[in-house]
Amino acid sequence: METEPCCEEQRDGVLDPTEPEVAEPISEPADCDPLNKLPCGPPEQGEELCGKDPSELENHAVETKDKEIKSLSNCEQERRQAECKVEKKLKKTNSWKMVRFQDPSTEEDVVERDSSAEILFPEYAVEEWTCAQFEELFAAEDWENITEDQLLRKKILESGDEQVPRSTWGQEVTVKMQGVLEDRTVVEKDCKLVFVIGEGDVIQALEECVMSMQKGEITLLLADSQYAYGLLGREPDIPAWAPLLYQLQLLDIRDKPDPETLPIADRIRVGNQKRERGNFHFQREEYSLAARAYYVALEVLTTHSQDGNDVGMKEEEEEVREYRVKCLNNLATAQLRLEQFDEALHTSRDVLTLQPNNVKALFRTGKLLSDKGEYKEAMEVLKQALKLEPTTKAIHAELSKLVKRQSGGKDTQQWRVKPAKVLGDDITPFLIPSKKKSSGLSWKFILGALVVALGSLVTSVIMTARN
């Protein structure tokens, strides 16, 4: 345990977002070889003809002339149809570093379709999607600005249902989307992504765009890095300051469900998704966004029903309690990074209400109480933490600091760092008295006085002898 505990589950790797799904590469558009690399003849005999002398090849020229002309014509036609695709093909990375919010009833189907080799919008492989430079798209006149700074733009490919009101802040939406970098590497893809607008489930670009879309609308979305992953990017697939281009379809709009109406299993699923999103922001040192995600997760991770009673079996209630403890510990750590010390103390006490022997919460509570000057309560809390983990150096160090504070900053006693298996309610045996000498006459002062007296005596004897 360190002096400043890290975010919950960091040692177990749970802080990392959900594991990326490994999918097969997207099929590349068919293309023909450049003119200077055309085969010497049909596949069956091309190798044989290439190995013959030029004089022998001349004998086949008339026979293969028509075939070559036809082959060149077909190849040129196919090349023109896939002109942009040949230049910059869609590539797919093997890393999906985003939290997935799917309906569990269709999760298997979603994973299967995400892993397929087909692009999600094959009928809309337009030039902007396949090969256009992003700089041109940011300046194009046929694109609509979503924000005033012109760093978030869209182009409608298919209009939606104008009879259905647009989505608003706090509503839940379902979208089909696929995102690429400028070199057309696919970095995000989901057939059925579900998120709540305003809760930070996805990047700001997607939240802003869906609020401008009609249900059923298919659009291209061009997002500057400020509305995507910014300075940090997203390792390993999205570099820093990288703009993104999305194909996006708004499938459904609905009100956010009340957590108290959901089955316990769904509450655990949604709550963990929100917590994982908070962990994602925490790793990026985006502590405000992390705290907001943990707050939302705590709202969902509850066993209360609308009538105020608890629902669920004992095992489910215990599971909810464990996940609430993880969220609260993570939230307290984020609050400390934001220097919200009173809030962090309150959150740590909430952890102890659920788990009185949670060492992280005990240590954090004792430290915060010590910083506030509430030494007596801090001592009791830290002693309890030390009983649970007697070999943790951070607890010993904090107790030593607390003892010094109690003494007014004077080094009159210190905390003895040693195994505390015999530690009881009385901490006196673990206090080492100061080695400072007791107040009284210093030996240096006494020696000086003796020297002065001896000198006076010698002077007196000499004066007497002279007289």
TrEMBL record:
Residues 65-92 form a coiled coil. The keyword Coiled coil applies. Keywords: Coiled coil, Isomerase, Membrane, Repeat, Rotamase, TPR repeat, Transmembrane, Transmembrane helix. Residues 170-254 form the PPIase FKBP-type domain. The chain crosses the membrane at residues 441-465. It catalyses: [protein]-peptidylproline (omega=180) = [protein]-peptidylproline (omega=0). Its EC number is 5.2.1.8. One of its GO terms (biological process) is negative regulation of apoptotic process. It comes from the Eukaryota. One of its GO terms (molecular function) is protein folding chaperone. It is an enzyme of class 5 (isomerase). TPR repeats lie at residues 325-358, 359-392. The keyword Ligase does not apply. Residues 1-52 are annotated as: Disordered. One of its GO terms (cellular component) is endomembrane system. It holds the Pfam family TPR_19. This is peptidylprolyl isomerase. The lineage of its organism: Eukaryota, Metazoa, Chordata, Craniata, Vertebrata.
